[in-house]
User: Fold this.
Amino acid sequence: MSGLRPDWLSTPLQFIKGVGPRRASDLGRVGLETVEDFLLRFPMRYEDRARLTPVAKLRPATTATVVAEVLSCGLRSTRRPGFRLFELIVKDGTGPVRAVFPNPNGVLLPGMYVRAQLTQAIDEQALLLPQQAVSRDARGEATTLVVGPDDKVELRSITVEPASDQWRVVAGLHAGERGIVQGQVKAKIDAPVKPVVVKLDSPTHG
Assistant:
């Protein structure tokens, strides 16, 4: 980035090799007009689909990637006239799981091996944290800042797993404890704070 000239950042995308006026017009509909707009367009979230999860370790309220053999599949009728769902049963070395989703073109067939991203059933008691509330230490372990009983900042080691665009807390944090989800940069360990309850777009239990 340091080698880019400021005037280059303001270059309209249509003049970038491989873009052109037509594609630039499509990008403009989502607010991308210049090179700078494009470079500052960050993903809403990160999904690590290279990390595989055995079927036996699937957990509610999480999104996981599994590689499994299709044992059976077919259309299933519903109470809604003319509306049918595609249902299949897949199995890996740890066990089977049933999945229901569209397959209008008949791509999935028995005997095939597939890589699927599955969102499991919802756990109403799940303890969730927004992505910005979880950091990683030098060893790559998940941590979060909490407000202790004495209203002082504590650094807590936790175990988490992906849950859509949030983190599901598996261990290290309990319902009722107060997590810091905003202003982490200014928060200092052991420093007193005056916590304020905030409303998140995606509710966080606890």
